[in-house]
């Protein structure tokens, strides 16, 4: 019997995020499912699981996006399906902040700010500490995260952006740091699936 595929989910999928996530995944030795990008996510959970299982090795990074949809949109629906699949082991999620208002948000274990610092709490879209007293990050594709009870949720500003601090041309340093933090906190030992 094969081991489940280890997956990191990223709650963003626009074209700027895609370039940053692809770069960051290479930086950590992960595989990125580029076809998972889209604003909103174009593939459903079943199709994404098929692609994840075909990846040459893990960890596999998958992007999911609701394009500002309130409630459970395409990205969150696909994420819930992936998280519940017996052949998938989600190591953690990169919860991306957005300007979406009136969302429940999601609790984060830690965040990477726009300067590359680890912050005990959430950040806003620009990667700045937002100063609220709660631990929730606001974004359009994060509301389902609390329900999934994932082992690690790392917050971050708008992937690939944050006033160019995370630009893929510079190696997407903030996204790379966040993905490495998920690997570290999840206890991922680097052993690939059979």
What does this entry look like structurally?
The chain is of the alpha/beta class. It is 26% helix and 18% strand. It is built from 5 helices and 9 strands. The protein has helices at residues 15-27, 45-54, 74-83, 145-148, 173-186; strands at residues 5-10, 31-32, 60-63, 88-96, 106-107, 110-112, 118-119, 136-137, 153-156. The strands form 2 sheets. The protein has a 7-stranded mixed sheet, sandwiched between helices. A two-stranded antiparallel ribbon has the order 5-8. β6 and β7 (118-119) form a beta hairpin. α1 crosses α5 and α2 packs across α3.
In short:
The protein is α/β, with parallel strands linked by helices. It has helices spanning 15-27, 45-54, 74-83, 145-148, 173-186; strands spanning 5-10, 31-32, 60-63, 88-96, 106-107, 110-112, 118-119, 136-137, 153-156.
